[in-house]
Amino acid sequence: MKDLAVWFVREGRMDPKELFAIALVLNQATELSDLDRSVAIMKARDGFGFSWEELEEMAPLLGLAPSRKVMEEYDAVGRMDARILAALDAGKIPFQGARALAALRPEARDRLAREVLARCEFSASELRELVEWLQDLSRRERETIPALLARPELMTALGASGSPREKGMSFIGTLRALRFPLVSAWEDRFQEVKRSLEGSEGILLS
């Protein structure tokens, strides 16, 4: 670029919050990624002292609904550790799924990122289920989520061969069996009966 447009404002001539708002106007919301929105909200809170009420008014400039709950979720994602933010930026974790990770304690989220998300690929809905089931198991078993993730059956699922997507399916299936043992037992029994009947004349299995 031979020319670069620059906008100068004399120090003290404009309130920092006004400058931040103008910067959002100049950077169209349609060009912002969800991660950019998270970082912008975090900076608005920490660097410019915006209240939640002020941010709600500015939400349209970020391409978001004027909802405090939504703003808080985006803020929480922006504060996650660098490993998760890097995976988000690379598109390895869907943003809607990352919003579910905000419900976890930092140590649980870190273990999940290192042990599971680094090896597996999940959809946003699967990540939401994964977090929900881990929380349910933690309460039922009275065990921390990092301890749950260290269980042999889950570690075996992570060590299975295949693509990150295939490993993700294996992990979700194993976690589901832990969370819903009775349902999983009946499903296994059904599959056994189905296999025993396959090939029988006059029986159609679907």
Per-chain topology:
Layout: H1 16-26, H2 34-46, H3 52-58, H4 68-78, H5 82-89, H6 95-101, H7 106-117, H8 124-141, H9 145-149, H10 152-158, H11 164-179, H12 181-197
Helix pairs in contact: 2-4, 6-8, 8-11, 10-11, 11-12
Instruction: Work out the helix count.
Output: 12
Which class best fits the helix and strand makeup? mainly alpha
Helical residue percent?
Answer: 55-70%
What is the average per-residue confidence, as pLDDT, rounded to a whole number?
85
Total number of beta strands: 0
Quick description:
With 206 residues, the protein is mostly helical.
Structural description of this entry:
By secondary structure, the protein is mainly α. The protein contains 12 helices and no strands. It has helices at residues 16-26, 34-46, 52-58, 68-78, 82-89, 95-101, 106-117, 124-141, 145-149, 152-158, 164-179, 181-197. Helix 2 crosses helix 4 (68-78). The radius of gyration is 23 Å and the shape is elongated.
Task: Describe the structure using short key phrases.
elongated, mainly alpha, 12 helices
